Amino acid sequence: MHFNDGEVPIAYERYLASKRLVIIVTTLLMALAFMTALSLGAAQVPLSEVIKSLLGMEVSSRHQIIVNSIRMPQAVTAMVAGAGLALSGAVMQAILRNPLGSPFTLGISHAAAFGAALSVMILGGGTMSSTGAITITSPMLTTMAAFTCAVLAAGLIIAISRRSGATPEVMILSGVALAALCTAGTMFLQFFADDVQLAAMVFWTFGDTARASWPEITLLCAITGPAALYFLANAWRYNTIEAGEETALALGINTRRLRLVGMLLSSLVTAVIIAFLGIIGFIGLVVPHLMRRLIGGDHRFLLPASMMSGSLLLLGADTAARLILAPNVLPVSVLTAFLGAPVFLYLIIRGRSCC
After folding, report:
1. How many whole angstroms separate alpha carbon 319 and alpha carbon 13?
2. Across the chain, where does the E strand assignment appear?
3. Any bridge partners for residue 136, and if so which?
C-alpha cells in the first residue's frame, strides 16, 4: 500500500477525490442550469443580458423585469425546494435504514398537504382564486398545520419501524396507507368546498414553484438552511446507524434522539415546501438513490451530493415544464412524477437496495 507524506493511503485520497469531484461537477451543472433557467422561456433573454442583470449592469427594462422579477424567484425556489426534498429523503433513508424511504413514499408529503389544505380552507390561513392560484395570508399558521400533520405521520412511521420484525415492505405499505388516508381527508374538504375553491384546491395539489414570492422564499431558506447544516454536521452519525444499531451505541451515539431530531427536521422542511408549493413527488426518493449508486453510501458525501443534485433535477424539470407547452406552463410535479415513478417501480421489482 502506498502512502504520501502525511501517511494517508494514496488509494483513499483518490477515493475521496472522486467523490468531491462528483459534488463539484454537480454544483457547476446547477449553476449552469440556473443561468439557463433565467435565459429560456416564452420570451428568451440572451445569456449575456442575464449575466449583466445579475452583475447589476445596465440592461433593458424588459429583460430586467423578466430576469429579476419573474424568473429569478421561481429558479431560486426550485433550487431550495429540490435541495430540501432530496436531503430529507436521504436522511429518512438513513434513519429508517430503508432505501425506499422519502417524504413522498412514506406519506409525509400527503400529510403535510392535508395540513396545509386544512389551514387554507378551514382555519383561514389563505385565500384561493378561480385561476387556481393560492395566496398564503398566514404563512406561520399554514406551515404549523402542515408541520403538525407531517410530524404525526413521521411519528407513526417511526413507531412502525421500531416494531420487531418490521420490514421495508411493511413500512412502505404503511406509507401508502397513510397517503391514502390523508388524500381521503383532502377529498373530504373538497366535498364541502364551493366550485371556485374546489377548482383551486385541485390545482394547488400540483406542485408549482412559481407560487412562492420572496417572503416565502426567505422562509424556505430560513428552515432548509439550518436543517441542512444539522444534517451535514451529523453525517458520520448516520453512517454509524446504517452500520447497525449496536455499532452506533458502542460509539456512544444516542440513536433514539438522532432519529427523532432527524425525522422532525425532515418533516419540517417537507411541511414548509408542501405548504407553499404543493406536492412535488419523487425528488426525495430518486435523487438519494441515484447519488448512492454513483458515490456510495458515505453520508459525508451523499448528503451534499443529494442537495446539489436535488436542486439540479428540480430546476431542470421546472425549466423544461415552462418550455414544453410555452406559453402555457406545465406543473413541475408532472415531470418529476414521470421521472420518479419508473425508478420507484424499478426499486419495488428489484426488491432490494441498489447501494
Report:
1. 37
2. 126-128, 134-136
3. 126
Quote the pTM value: 0.84
Domains of the chain: 10-350 (1.10.3470.10)
Helices (H) and strands (E) in the chain, counts: 15, 2
> Widest CA span of the chain, in angstroms?
73
Q: Are 81 and 209 in contact (CB under 8 A)?
A: yes
pLDDT of 354: 41
For residue 155, is it left (φ>0), alpha (ψ between -120 and 50) or beta? alpha
Nearest to 109 by CA among 344, 299, 343, 333: 333
| CA atoms within 13 A of residue 205's CA, in its CB half-sphere | 15
pLDDT in tens, 251-262: 777 777 888 888
**Cis status of the peptide bond prior to 168, with omega within 30 of 0:** no
Amino acid at site 294: L
The distance in angstroms from the start CA to the end CA of the chain is: 27
**For residue range 213-224, what is the model confidence (pLDDT) as tens digits?**
888 899 899 999
